[in-house]
Amino acid sequence: MAIVLFIVICIVGTWIVARATAPGAKEGASEEGTSRTSSAQTAGPSVADSALDSLGDVAHQQDGIVIDQSKSQLTYIRLSDGMHLGSANERFARPALSLSKLYIADYVIDEGTGSEKYDALQMISNSDDGIAEELFAIYPESIDEVAKKYGLYSTDAGEYWGRSVTSTYDVVKFIQALKDADPLHPILVAMSQPDEIAADGYEQDFGTAVLKNVIGAKWGWSNDRDIHASVSFGDNFIVAASVTGSARDLTKLVRTQLSGQKLKEATTWFLESQKPGGGRKKVSETIITD
C-alpha cells in the first residue's frame, strides 16, 4: 500500500510540475451531451457512507434509470454538519457531459498505467475530449464500474462516454467519497488546477465555480452549448448543478439558489430541525421549482 501511495504521489507531483511549465491549452474536439434512456443497472456496494446518506436521502436502486426532463438540477451539501439542499429532481439522470471524465479518471487511477494516470489528470484540468476518447476506448467499463463502486444509481455510460448520464446527487456523492478517502486525492488536486481555457477553446469560469471559497471545479457543456453542468468543492461544501441553457444560465441558477440569504435560511431551518422535539429531519429541502 505504501508503494502504491508513493507512486500516486509521484505522478501527481510530476503532473503539477509539468502543468506549471506547459504551453497553453490546444484546440480539441467538442464535448458530447446527448441524453439517452438507460437500461437497468445492478448497483454494487458503496465505498463509504455519505453524509447525504446519513440524512436518510439515499438514492435507492431503481428498475431503470429515470431521465430528468426538467430545465435545472442542483445538489449542495455542507460537510461540517451534513446540511443538504437539493432540487426535487436531484437524483434523476441528466447528460453527464464532461463530468463523466471524473469517473473515467477514478478508474484509470486505480487500474491504468503511469502514463494513463498522468493523461487522466490532464483530462480533468483541461477537459480534453481526445484523452477521454482514448481512455474510454481502453477502459469502456470505467464509468459503470465507478458507478457500482460508489453507489451512483443514476450514472450510466451507455455506448460512449459522451452520451453517459449522471445526476448532481451522484456527482456530489462521488466527490464527497474522494474527500473522505483523501483530501489530497489526485482528482481533487487536478480539479484545483484547471486551465482557464479548455482544450476545445471554451472558458472554464462559470456555474458552481463562481461561489466563494471554491477550491476545485470541473465543468461540462454539450456540443451545441445548450446544456451546461459543473461541480465544485471547498473545505466545507460540495455543490453540483446542471441546466438546459447557457453557461450564464447555470451561473445565474447557482447564484440565485445558493445566495447568502438562501443559505442563511437553510441553516436556520436545519438547526431548528436538530433541536429536541423539532421533528424528524426532512429527506431533502427542495429549493428549485421548474
Structure overview:
The protein has helices at 2-21, 51-54, 100-111, 114-126, 129-138, 142-150, 168-181, 186-191, 247-257, 260-274, and strands at residues 72-78, 84-86, 94-95, 165-166, 216-221, 227-233, 237-244, 285-286. The protein is built from 10 helices and 8 strands. Helix content is 39%, strand content 13%. Strand 6 and strand 7 (237-244) form a beta hairpin. The protein is globular. The chain starts with a helix and ends with a strand. The strands form 2 sheets. The chain has a 6-stranded mixed β-sheet with strand order 5-6-7-1-2-8, sandwiched between helices. The protein has a single domain, classed as Beta-lactamase (3-Layer(aba) Sandwich), CATH 3.40.710. By secondary structure, it is an alpha+beta fold.
Fraction of residues in H or I helices: 25-40%
Major β-sheet profile: 6 strands, mixed
Number of separate domains: 1
Q: How large is the radius of gyration?
A: 18 Å
Low-confidence stretches: 1-11, 16-63
Tally of helical runs: 10
Whole-Å distance between the termini?
A: 48 Å
